[in-house]
Specification:
The complex is a heterodimer of chains A (about 325) and B (about 325).
Chain A: H1 2-37, H2 43-49, E1 58-62, E2 65-66, E3 70-73, E4 78-80, H3 82-94, E5 101-105, E6 115-117, E7 123-125, E8 128-129, H4 137-140, E9 152-161, E10 177-181, H5 187-193, E11 196-200, H6 203-211, E12 217-221, H7 222-231, E13 236-239, E14 246-249, H8 257-272, H9 278-286
Chain B: H1 7-20, H2 25-34, H3 37-48, H4 51-69, H5 80-87, H6 90-103, H7 109-127, H8 132-163, H9 167-175, H10 188-215, E1 222-228, E2 240-250, E3 254-258, E4 264-268, E5 272-277, E6 290-291, E7 294-295, H11 300-304
Helix pairs in contact in B: 1-2, 1-10, 4-5, 4-6, 4-7, 4-10, 7-8, 8-9
Classes of the chains: A alpha/beta (about 325), B alpha+beta (about 325).
């Protein structure tokens, strides 16, 4: 009996060893194929795939009429604001110095098609659009739109002239003339509330209309309106309408998936690298305005999903890849 | 066949130049004339130094498994695998183990330890099978201790790999110590077929794997150059053209460049405004798992020697001028 037991044990060990040999061989072949097939790109490879190698200028579509967000000083020929700082931050990650970034003013309705014209009237196809562009399912469904992860959280708000009676919801403006942007995410809630809606291509036109009494109010994202209110604090006031949906702003990288990943990497670096304070500095400088009646935007950068990319150890925060 | 073995590296080098020249004979002749053979050989040695120990140690293990599984089979002719084992002295194996320890990445060292323990165990069983105590120590206690030690030392790395979703590294680190169990025979009936087939597949597959790896290895330095004036048709706005290419040769008058698409370009030295070496992105590790401060894709040499400085991204390598 003992001999039979021992023989069985020996046989079991033999089979186990055979299983180890065969499994190792199969596993090695499988792992090699898996690694080869699922090889993650490096940042230089992503830059090449995105068509950035050899490119002299990065064309970024921005607004030019929104104080503190994206404003063009025509005397100095300079752009400034939160969106501009975010653009520079992303451009730096893509390998472009500030003087290699060319800002072109993009019309609201062209943020999806990524076309903008320069001062001479020539049209250009943009590399990126950083223009208070809210991420929505309808926009994401369009083939020419691919949003990065969000870089700012804000909410819908209303601005009127100082001294206006309190507005607690959009329904309080029923039957009143309210201005907003063409293709704004405010269009639907305004229509639902039964206001008389006026659409303008530029939000500054709406604000001027409110100031000269043509419109009762202007509705847009709080971060868009904040600069106007801060600039005209004695004439304009915010109303917190308690709209419960957050507006998440993203960068449109068009149909360039590699570029979208790179933009996300730059946002991720900024979000999770404690030494990278560029987003925080931009917020403090341009969006911490101290205006009353409205929380302009969340003062913490939104979370960014990890991106599958190969990087030298220590060059990207762990949460990013 | 063995006599032809030294010809294999030469064949590899010629093939590499053939691929580099994009199968253009004139370009290839230029490369043959200009490229330093020492540079090519260095690339070959550094890229493929880890391969010979894989072949020798895996062959030894399979051969010993076959011998241990079929003791005293006088009715069968000795297989080529068994003959190789018999003709390879132990000191050669010791040298190859040391070679592997120096050239294999950390993630493969558990496999090296386990395979070495298995080879020691199988050798003991074949030579001193009658000595039960020695067999117990060398074939049971030693491998078990070795495997447990590996799990203890690599434990944090294994956990980190699975936690971060790096399955390949996790499986490699966790699975390799199991090879230490191969200190005894496998089923007699299948032993010859299994070991012989695996060794044959390895022998025929290795040259293709080696070739594929080497053909993707850079053998010329990749640089970015700022070229100004003189080539007005190519100079873009700003008067400076930025070219990223491999340098074939530099003499006192001309710099010979080879672009990625196989085009050769000769540039007068005085037109070159600046030059920078561009890093090879393929060197970026696939896994970022670290075990006791040692990256799993680092060899002993890479771990012990001071790392090469990684300069910040240079715009010239991205095709943009340095300018201010």
């Amino acid at each position: 009996v003992a001999a039979t037991k021992r023989w069985r044990l020996t046989a079991a060990w033999r089979v186990l060893r055979l299983a180890v040999v065969v499994t190792t061989a199969v596993l090695l072949a499988f792992l090699s194929l898996y690694l080869w097939w699922n090889a993650e790109p490096t940042v230089p490879e992503l830059r090449a795939q995105a068509g950035l190698v050899g490119k002299r200028e990065l064309l970024v579509g921005v607004n030019d009429d929104i104080p503190n967000l994206s404003y063009r000083d025509r005397d100095k020929e300079q752009f400034s604001g939160f969106d501009i700082e975010i653009s520079y931050m992303i451009a730096a990650y893509l390998g472009f110095r500030p003087d290699q970034v060319r800002f072109l003013v993009v019309d609201n309705e062209d943020r999806e098609s990524m076309r903008a014209r320069d001062d001479k009237g020539h049209y250009w196809t943009l590399d990126l659009v950083v223009a208070s562009f809210s991420i929505t399912k309808d926009r994401e469904a369009k083939p020419q739109v691919s949003f990065s992860d969000p870089y700012l959280r804000t909410e819908l708000s209303v601005v009127t002239k100082q001294g206006h009676t309190e507005i607690q919801s959009l329904e309080d403006l029923r039957g009143k003339k309210v201005c907003t942007l063409t293709t704004s995410t405010a269009n639907t809630p305004l229509a639902d509330a039964g206001v008389i809606e006026f659409d303008r291509a530029m939000i500054s036109a709406c604000v001027i209309g409110v100031l000269d009494g043509r419109f009762e109010a202007v509705s847009s994202d709080a971060a868009v309106l904040a600069g106007f209110v801060a600039k005209n604090s004695d004439q304009l006031m915010f109303h917190d309408i308690g709209y419960d949906e957050q507006e998440l702003w993203g960068v449109n990288a068009g149909d360039n998936e590699a570029l979208r990943k790179l933009v996300n990497l730059s946002l991720c670096q900024s979000r999770y690298d404690p030494n990278d304070r560029r987003w925080e500095m931009a917020f403090e400088t341009y969006l911490r305005l101290g205006v009353k009646g409205q929380d302009i935007a969340v003062d913490e950068q939104p979370k960014v999903s990890p991106i599958k990319v190969r990087a030298w150890p220590g060059t990207l925060p762990d949460a990013c890849h | 066949v063995l006599a032809l073995l030294p010809a294999f590296p030469i064949l590899l080098l010629v093939l590499r130049l053939w691929v580099l020249s994009r199968q253009d004979l004139a370009t290839m002749l230029l490369l043959v004339q200009q490229v330093n053979p020492l540079g090519l050989a260095s690339a070959l040695v550094l890229t493929l130094a880890w391969v010979p120990p894989v072949v020798v140690l895996a062959g030894r293990l399979l051969g010993l498994l076959q011998l241990a599984s079929q003791p005293g089979r006088a009715d069968l002719p000795a297989s080529w695998l068994a003959l190789r084992v018999a003709r390879t002295p132990d000191w050669v194996i010791v040298i190859f183990v040391a070679w592997a320890a120096m050239t294999w990445q950390l993630q493969f060292l558990p496999a090296l330890v386990a395979v070495t323990l298995a080879i020691v165990g199988l050798t003991t069983r074949i030579r001193y099978g009658d000595d039960d105590w020695l067999v117990t120590i060398m074939c049971v206690l030693l491998p078990a201790t070795g495997a447990i030690s590996l799990y203890v030392w690599f434990g944090p790395g294994i956990l980190a790999a699975f936690e971060s979703g790096d399955l390949a590294t996790g499986i490699l680190l966790a699975g390799s110590p199991v090879l230490a169990v191969l200190t005894g025979p496998i089923p007699r009936a299948s032993s010859r077929v299994v070991t012989q087939w695996l060794a044959t597949v390895m022998a025929f597959g290795a040259p293709f794997v080696v070739g594929a790896i080497f053909l993707g290895t850079p053998v010329l330095p990749e640089v970015a150059l700022e070229i100004g004036g003189g080539s007005a048709d190519r100079v873009e706005a700003g008067g400076v053209e930025v070219v990223r290419s491999e340098i074939v040769t530099v003499d006192d008058r001309m710099t010979t460049l080879l672009s990625r698409d196989g085009r050769v370009r000769f540039v007068r030295n005085e037109l070159i405004l600046s030059k920078v070496l561009c890093p090879d992105a393929n060197q970026i590790p696939v896994s970022d798992i670290v075990v006791h401060g040692w990256g799993v894709e680092e060899t002993v040499f890479e771990f012990l020697l001071p790392p090469a400085p990684r300069p910040p991204d240079d715009p010239r390598c991205e095709g943009r001028p340095l300018g201010g």
